[in-house]
Amino acid sequence: MAELADPTAARYAVCSVPITAADTSEAGARIVRDAIEGRSCQVHLCNAYTLSLVDRDEELRTALTHAELNLADGVPVARMGRKYGMQAPVRGSELVGMVAKVGGGRLFHYFYGGKEGVAELMAARLRTQVPELKVVGTEAPPFTAITDEHLAGLSTRVRDSGANILWIGLGTPRQDYLVHRLADQLPIPIVPVGAAFDFWSGAVKEAPRFVRGTGLEWVYRLVVEPRRLWRRYLIGNPRFLVSAWRHRS
Asked: CA dist 99 to 27, 102, 153, Å?
């Protein structure tokens, strides 16, 4: 596995995937540091659904085991790291806000994800909270499979923009594949945050604050988007529990 950005950080395994015991502020500070120093950093936000797939998806497992920073996205994954200091999950939308705030004018953001116009709206709303935010690129991905040719073009556009951090919003596991595929071409933090694009842009309403961190946010999301998310939660959650039990140490 690749060397961690902070080799002293505690790690614990969930479904045999190493998770870094870092909260949102710690993860945000590490990502900002790597961006400023021009260091490659493959980041993944690992929720129950993501981890439920690794036993059946070798490409995803490879991406996660080569990452510098796998974060606990979701209460079940965070709770499994309690004895390592985990107090709460790292939510994608909160990580984006934290990195933007801590990085300030030192970071040059590139947003790649969402439907047409979503990345632009996300950048605009972030700027209302962080006026010094510097966005050097926004782009909607194609609906078709991302080819090597498209990937090469994206890498060139990101490099030419001067970005030192790339945010990806494609949904799991597509965004996780892309992080690993781009890592050799872009020596910057690459962070997949999925639904954060929709939340920040306002395309999808985020769960109320009193629900976040309770372990029941998935219920809210399932009610809001049942057709898109029913398989993730009603099949993925039980599959995650089985996998976590099988791989327990």
From this structure: 9, 5, 26
User: The domain spanning residue 237 has which CATH number?
Assistant: 3.40.50.10700
Burial call 10-40: b when 16+ CB within 10 Å, e when fewer: eebebbbbbbbbbbbebbbbbbbbbbeeebb
Picking from 158, 39, 42, 28, the residue whose alpha carbon sits closest to that of residue 97 is: 28
Domain assignment present for 5:
no
Structurally, how many domains does the chain consist of? Answer: 1
pTM of the model: 0.88
HEC profile of 18-63 = EEECCCHHHHHHHHHHHHHCCCCEEEEEECHHHHHCCCCCHHHHHH
Residue 4 lies inside a defined structural domain of this protein: no
**Phi then psi for 18, rounded to 5 degrees?**
-75, 125
Does the residue 138 lie in any domain?
yes
> Which residues form the domain of 171?
11-246
Encode pLDDT of 187-203 as tens digits.
999 999 988 999 899 87
- Report pLDDT digits (tens) over 4-54: 345 457 999 999 999 999 999 999 999 999 999 999 999 999 999 999 999
